[in-house]
Design brief:
InterPro entries: FAD/NAD-bd_sf (IPR036188), GMC_OxRdtase (IPR012132), GMC_OxRdtase_N (IPR000172), GMC_OxRtase_C (IPR007867)
Cofactor: FAD
Bound molecules: flavin-adenine dinucleotide
Low-confidence stretches: none
CATH architecture of the largest domain: 3-Layer(bba) Sandwich
Keywords: FAD, Flavoprotein
Number of domains: 2
GO molecular function: flavin adenine dinucleotide binding; oxidoreductase activity, acting on CH-OH group of donors
Mean pLDDT: 97
Structural class: alpha+beta
CATH topology of the largest domain: FAD/NAD(P)-binding domain
Helix content: 10-25%
Number of strands: 25
Shape: globular
Family: Belongs to the GMC oxidoreductase family.
Amino acid sequence: MPHVHEYDYVVIGGGTAGSVIASRLTEDPDVTVAVIEGGPSDVGRDDVLTLRRWTGLLGGELDYDYPTTEQPRGNSHIRHSRARVLGGCSSHNTLIAFKPLPSDWDEWEEAGARGWGAVPMEAYYARLLNNIVPVDEKDRNAVARDFVDAARQALGVPRVEGFNRRPFTEGAGFFDLAYHPETNKRSSASVAYLHPVLDRRPNLHLLLETWAYRLELAGSRAEGVHVRTKDGAELLIRARNEVVLCAGAVDSPRLLLHSGTGPARDLEALGIPVAHDLPGVGENLLDHPESVIVWETHGPIPENSATDSDAGLFVRRDPGHPGPDLMFHFYQVPFTDNPERLGYERPAHGVSMTPNIPKPRSRGRLYLTSADPSVKPALDFRYFTDEDDHDGRTLVDGIRIAREIARTEPLAGWLKREVCPGPEILGDAELSEYARRAAHTVYHPAGTCRMGAADDELAVVDPELRIRGLDGIRVADASVFPAMPAVNPMVGVLMVGERAVDLLKGGA
Ligand SMILES: Cc1cc2nc3c(=O)[nH]c(=O)nc-3n(C[C@H](O)[C@H](O)[C@H](O)COP(=O)(O)OP(=O)(O)OC[C@H]3O[C@@H](n4cnc5c(N)ncnc54)[C@H](O)[C@@H]3O)c2cc1C
């Protein structure tokens, strides 16, 4: 028999949304919360807390590192980094901080997420505790400034100072980041929500390096979760009130599936006893894929930066589209990890532009290949498989637009030559082939426990984030996104966390 512990709430995953929820719930000293977190603490870890060291975490000991399945129209070598540390991916990412656009929230509402429209969601942004500020002047690299000026010149888009100030459809500028510019320290979910209270709240219990592997279900009620600690002890952590699943877009559906909650036929085929037939679990796998175009520069780039990717561009090609339909990150480094696999070389000095698909139409699927909970799930993003090839065409347009910007001063003066795809690659088909094969992810998986109307059979959670057909359990993380926001998703996840707290308290 496992040892049993009981708390009012059990939060599974002390990541981006989980940190918000655990912090807010324990503001009431009479409420006890256990956080089950697979990774260690981030307190005192400069390798985690220093924002600019983010690339050092990719593929390391704090990364679950999920592979993708074969992608016939994309890049089959993409690895999906997912952070194994307190704060989750907000302890690992670049902390580019975009409030989702009003059109993004309204799209959720139209998809059946009643109450999640732009107007009610605005209040949750105001509650966020993260230090969201524009990239500091000292971190604004000369080549990134010249990228912004060249993009304005070439495309006639406005310069944007503060992308979160008002909704936009187009613009070039430096991002807002959740960081402390004076030290380059992260203002992750854990730093902003948990660090200030860790030693002051006896009602907040962190179970670190502890893995949740199966929910405890009694009929349709979730009573708790089975976990294994770092030392191999098996515990049952019970929730008097509710279990809140915040393990992220890969691990939330994974845990549900291993608990017998998912498409019955798939579970039966693997010999997992079906507890609750819920066909949407793992469906609707979304991401923001992007490709890359790289230039060699005449010499080294100045050193100063916050993340090495501090500025970007949004374009709206289709005037009827509710928001931007093409985005770029500008990297102050030659980002050739994927092109090198296609035979390209990394120049000693260089910069990159990365055309990104804000509203991808391809939809993928996450599924198990084994009943063994330690086997990683399969992630089939089905990149670039949408019927009209909207996604592939967006990248081709992006490369052409990137070249226009590169030809324009003041950026043009920095650039010696286009390294990849290379100036001889001009036709639509060739550009598309390169762009899809060299594509990478910006690590935004979402949507695998999609929220929808209570009578939507393929929805996993209802608009109150309750798992359809179960009691005592909600999901609150990137997996509940019904659709991808046009912008980077972390702030949206933090806002899901804040709203989840209202729902748990019965106040929304
Ligand atoms: C490298 C990288 C760069 C990114 N850059 C940006 C960016 O600049 N801007 C932006 O908006 N978004 C960015 N993102 C995406 C963004 O960080 C995520 O969308 C968001 O943080 C996801 O939050 P979450 O709460 O859904 O999951 P997470 O933050 O991943 O939290 C899940 C937590 O659950 C824990 N966990 C999982 N399974 C279990 C289990 N079974 N038992 C116990 N614990 C478990 C994990 O350890 C983790 O702490 C980036 C992501 C990455 C990886």
